[in-house]
Amino acid sequence: MSRRFLFAEQKVPRYTSYPTAPHFQAKVGPTIYSDWLSQIPADATLSLYVHVPFCTSLCIYCGCHTQVARRKDPLREYVSLLGRELELVMQRTSVRKIARIHWGGGTPSAIGGAALAEIMEQLARLADITAVREHAIELDPRHVRPELVHTLAALGINRVSLGVQTFAAHVQAAMGRVQPFATVRRAIDRLRQAGIDNFNFDLMYGLPRQTTTDLRETIDLAVGLNPQRLALFGYAHVPWFRPRQRLINEADLPGVTERFDQMNTARQHLYRHGFEPIGLDHFALPSDELAVAAREHRLHRNFQGYTDDGSAVLIGLGSSSIGRVPQGFVQNAADVVEYTRRITSNQLATVRGIALTDDDRARGKVIEELMCYLRTNLPPSSNLLDAPAQETLAALQHEGLVHHDGRLIIVPETARPLVRLVAAAFDAYLPNNAARHSAAV
Ligand code: SF4
Predict the structure, then answer these.
(1) I need a surface site. Which of 44, 203, 281, 310 has the fewest CB within 10 A?
(2) What pTM did the predictor assign?
(3) Is 439 a pocket residue for ligand 1 (Cβ < 6 Å)?
């Protein structure tokens, strides 16, 4: 086995933030977050992320923190908690202008169209949503009914992310999510008829019983539905973390060499279809705003992946959601019971976070540049190229995974899928990290 495969096996963070969430600290709680919110200049713009940790049914392959709500009551209660949390946040900041809204989960539409509308009405009372540029939602294609589509269009939703993963029936059966092509096509048709025409699809490789032929066929079908953006993720088998994945037969999972082949096959096939690579694992048509932002050096990496959202403030609502303010990161209680307890006692639900130091900011900038553009030029005054970083970079350079010439660090196109390994060279928290991450490929 080549050393490149051994590198691919290494566990490294996905760097949707730096420092990464496992290094958030319990000392950042509601008091510190309140203070941070009160210090944000009133003319700043906010992005809002609303997390709904419920689904209609659970898919056994899924690594998300989500649960099935079999009765209406918990959903009703959760909706009122989101409303109350929104009030608590808005009482602590003078910022009112919202630029972007993203509903994620779970399946955000599990709360129902009426509840989505209720939260938006409350948001309109508490903030200025007249200039929202992007209003996005993650949808389960199996539950895109006409009444829901009608509500989404009325609420101004203009981007939809659909979890497609694969169209191969035998893979869908093995991964525990049966979702025929006709179901996805019907969802897209309904959304387009209602005027919602910006689509992101999530695709996966490394799934049980999946082959490179399956991947090519899935990509052909997906591209035929005309999404502007696609994301390609490797299935992460982490049964110690998500016990439902124990239902997946490990003998059906491709090994590291096959995963590598599948990923390369999928990438090349997307290029043949005219998609441009965006950072680690996203793809966009050249005319898409994300591709334009990448060319104009306006790309960012956040908890939803890659974005052209330049807003310095991201407010996270809902259990487990992560927010970002200029002073640092904050995370809400992941456990819905604990989240409920905190909000019903009129506290913010912040249980962890981190105050950014100058070193964190400098490293975070380098890591974000590498993750977005595969290159960074360290400033002359930078002390980030310390002995451990140089040692890691030298080992990666030996394998052709990075070109390191003085302060200029360039990841060659062939090593794009392994850029996380190069970013990790600048992660000062990693050596002491006992948390497990997913494999680099
Ligand atoms: S894949 Fe989507 S619908 Fe399935 S359990 Fe995960 S979040 Fe829910």
Answers:
(1) 310
(2) 0.94
(3) no
